[in-house]
Structure formats: C-alpha cells, structure tokens
Amino acid sequence: MLSSMVKCDTGSSSIIEPMQTFEALLREAEVAHGHLCAGQILGVRMAMLGCERLGIDDPKGADRKRLVTFVEIDRCATDAIAVVTGCRLGKRALKFRDWGKMAATFVDLSTDKAIRIAALESSKQRAKDLYPNIEPKNQQQMLAYRELPADELFTEEWVQILIHPREMPGYKSSRIACAQCGEGINYDREVLRDEQILCQACAFPEARYYQPLTPQTSPSKT
Predict the structure, then answer these.
(1) Are 64 and 48 in a shared domain?
(2) For residue 185, how many other CB atoms are within 10 A of its CB?
(3) Same domain, 129 and 60
(4) Is 69 inside any structural domain?
(5) Could you tell me if residue 74 is inside a domain?
(6) How far is CA 164 from CA 1, 50, 116, 136, 173, in A?
(7) What is the CATH number of the domain that holds 153?
(8) What is the domain extent for residue 138?
(9) Which tens digits make up the pLDDT trace of 172-210?
(10) Are residues 208 and 120 in the same domain?
(11) Total structural domains in the chain?
C-alpha cells in the first residue's frame, strides 16, 4: 500500500478520451524534445505500456490525477515519458531518481498499483539483427524499436512504491525562512540544527551542488 494512503477523485463525470496513437504521441515527443531519436521511441512505447498495464486510458485528461511516474535517467526517453503521461516535475507527478537506467515506474494512486518497466540491453542487438545494413545505429534502432514486440524491448515488474505524503502532488505546507541565508524553504525540507531552522544548503554546505564564489573570484559586474 502507498504510505500516503491518498486516493484520487478522478471525477466520475469526466469524459475519458482514448489514448492517443503511437504516431501522434511520437510527433508530440519530437516537438517537445527538439528531435526524434531512438530514445524517444523507447520512451513513448515504455510509457504507453505502463499506462496500458495500469488501465489508464486518458493520462493527460480524465485520469491525470491518478498517475505518478518515477524516471531513472535524465535522457531522451524521459521527455517522451512526460509527453505520454502528462506527468511534470512542476506538478510533482514526475519524480527523478538518478540511477542512470533506461527505466521508469508508473504508479496508479487510485489503486496503489505500480509497475516498473526497463529497457532490455538485448534490444540493441535485436535492432542490429533486423537491420544489419542500415547505418548509423540510431536509424537502425529507430526502425527496430517501432516494430519489436514489447517483450523484446522491455522487462516488466510489479512493485510497491512508498510515497510520503509530502511527496504527493497537491501537498500543501508552510513556507519557512532559513535562519542563516534567509531564503524560503518549502515542502518540509528544513533541517533543525543547533536549535536553528536551516535550509539543506546551510545545514550541509559540503553537500551543496554549488559552491559560492568569493568577491575576489566572482565575475566582475559590467
């Protein structure tokens, strides 16, 4: 069971539209990403398969509040997955786990079901076997990934996802100012240290993804 125990009101009066076609979604993914590549095709097919397994027909419409997606790589497929599912980082429905894997987990909040789908490494060889005379390999893979059956492209595994309430879409929290830098902190990300409420950057400066420059090393203002 999801730890949040949140159930979504999908709106019984909403009109459920059928899933867009593969070609239509692929065109949308190409526009969103800026070009078409093998990763886009894998991402579209992966997300369509995830929705199909969960019984979600209209992820960007009537079913939009049902779905949360975890992606494991910041590459082309992730943009395509967002296009198919409608899940966005800004909506808190797209979660990134930096594992470097061509994989995603699709969670239906209305049923607590979750399925993880990962691309098979063998799919690259299958593409080469199907189109040995086509170069470059991206073109080879783009053709093959359109045609190969799902079981030759992906593994599927039903999993359990524990989503904390503060990670849910629509979660509300108070905004607290860091006692050291004064910046606002949202979604319960504050840290209590030495009886002070601090942000992550001030509480753990060694772990910051950035390091402030000194006045001597900062670029001069023009």
Answers:
(1) yes
(2) 21
(3) yes
(4) yes
(5) yes
(6) 12, 22, 19, 44, 13
(7) 3.30.1330.130
(8) 22-167
(9) 888 999 999 999 999 889 999 999 999 999 999 999 999
(10) no
(11) 2
> Number of C-alpha atoms within 13 angstroms, CB side, residue 157?
11
Amino acid 176 reads I
Q: Is 211 helix (H, G, I), strand (E, B) or coil?
A: coil
> What's the pLDDT score for residue 50?
98
Among 23, 58, 53, 59, smallest CA distance to 41 is for 23
pTM above 0.70, yes or no: yes
Q: Identify the bridge partners of residue 159 per DSSP, sorted by sequence position.
A: 114
**Is residue 127 in some structural domain?**
yes
Nearest Cα to Cα of residue 59 among 75, 38, 82, 78: 82
Q: Where are the alpha helices (DSSP H) in 55-89?
A: 76-85
Print burial letters for 36-71: b (CB count within 10 Å at least 16), e (below 16).
Answer: bbbbbbbbbbbbbbbbebbebebbbebbbbbbbbbb
Is 112 part of a structural domain of the chain? yes
